[in-house]
Amino acid sequence: MSLLNSPTHYGAMTRFLHWAVFLLFVYQYLGANLMTRIGSGKTLFGLTQGSYYNWHKSIGLTLLALALLRLAWRKLTPLPDWAPTLTPTERAISHWNETLLYGCMILMPVSGYLFVMAGDYGIKLFGGFDLPNPIGKQEGLATLARVVHIVTAYATVVVVAWHVGLGFKHQIFDRDRFLDRMLPFVRR
Ligand code: HEM
Ligand code: HEM
């Protein structure tokens, strides 16, 4: 499989970025639910609540870098044509859905970062390096960014469910092997 997309296939780079982002999103949701539920000073699987927070923040910033790389790759290299089995309405829906997916991939880490920096909670990147705080403590911004982070977390679930639903509808009911377009190591 070539690195670049072809007119009929997503290439290795797009597929790698797609599934790396998906796996890290799953980690973020699981990790966020753990870190907000274990009390401060408590440990779970040998990690403190503070470690879970730091991993959430560090992986979140990694996701921002991956989302920007992914967007740049999409804009700078050719995209495959639409799957021939998508109706014009499904193409229009997918176009808006993909725009929202990119919005979520960027808004989630940016709002998390602004919340943590404006709240002056700090980020020790991967447990080793304290990131500087370029904006300083701003309570109003911290509250707003936290609300955006939480609301977007729920909105992302809806947008991803809509995306996955369309894929499974084609794969299972239309039997057009639509998911092969993005699954790793699969080439029709
Ligand atoms: C794509 C990246 C990210 C995803 C998918 C994500 C997801 C989530 C989710 C699902 C929650 C729980 C929301 C709830 O209470 O229901 C959460 C909370 C939180 N996130 Fe993120 N997050 C991301 C990036 C970040 C980043 C980059 C930071 C900071 C640098 C961050 C800091 C936080 C903090 C501090 C909380 C706890 C909020 C509270 O007080 O309840 N997140 N995140
Ligand atoms: C965090 C979760 C997900 C995000 C953010 C996401 C995002 C995207 C985006 C933006 C695209 C357009 C191509 C690109 O720019 O890379 C895409 C394509 C695709 N995704 Fe996802 N995706 C997610 C999860 C999934 C899952 C769980 C599945 C399958 C069960 C899936 C199946 C597909 C397929 C088959 C395509 C190709 C669609 C087409 O050819 O029109 N995605 N995804």
Throw out a few tags for this protein.
188 residues, mainly alpha, Fumarate Reductase Cytochrome B subunit, two-stranded antiparallel ribbon, 4 helices, 63% helix, elongated, binds protoporphyrin IX containing FE
Give a short synopsis of this structure.
The protein is mainly α and 188 residues long. The protein contains four helices and four strands; from the N terminus they run αββααββα. The strands form two sheets. It has a two-stranded antiparallel ribbon with strand order 1-2. It has a two-stranded antiparallel ribbon with strand order 3-4.
Total domains: 1
Distance between the termini: 11 Å
What ligand species are in this complex? protoporphyrin IX containing FE
Name the average pLDDT: 96
The CATH topology turns out to be: Fumarate Reductase Cytochrome B subunit
The number of distinct β-strands equals 4
Overall shape: it is elongated
Low-confidence runs of at least 5 consecutive residues = none
Estimate percent helicity: 55-70%
Number of helices: 4
For the largest beta sheet, what order do the strands appear in spatially? 1-2
* Name of the level-1 CATH class: Mainly Alpha
How would you describe the oligomerization state of the chains in this entry?
single chain
Structural class: mainly alpha
CATH-derived architecture: Up-down Bundle
- Which H/E pattern describes the elements? HEEHHEEH
